[in-house]
Amino acid sequence: MGRRGARKGAVNLSTLRTIGFALVLIGFFMPVTRVHSSGFRLIETLMGGRAFGAGENILMGLLTIAVFATAIVGLVIGVLILMNRKTNIPATTGWIVLLVCIGSGLIVFFAGLNSPSLQNGGILILIGWVVALVGQVLARAK
Hints:
The protein contains five helices and no strands. The longest helix has 29 residues, at 54-82. The protein has one domain. It starts with a helix and ends with a helix. Helices cover 77% and strands 0% of the residues. Helix 1 packs antiparallel against helix 3 (54-82), helix 2 (39-47) packs antiparallel against helix 3 (54-82) and helix 3 packs antiparallel against helix 4 (91-112). It has helices spanning 2-29, 39-47, 54-82, 91-112, 120-141. With 142 residues, the protein is mostly helical. It is elongated and about 45 Å long.
């Protein structure tokens, strides 16, 4: 009986992690900075070479794409876990996905944006990272 309770708690904490990745995705569709109306416009600006030198723009654009892509992967992994599918996903995969998502975004935020003033989408992405990180830590601690 004790094992069932621990398993149920782990599933609830996986829900928290999944909600965090969903918040990151939702924030990506909202205005991220004062200049960029969404994460996709940010990618377009960076990849179009209108912000920095061509090489740095491509890198920052790819890192922004990595934030979106890893949030999708994290959401899919979370949904599979919540559906109680027998998945052979190693425990470290969730950590790698989360750390790549957060790390890519922080690099773009601190190194890629000249004067980052976050709007609702950017703040929601930050909240999503915190929620996903807390869910990941608590789910692995149980």
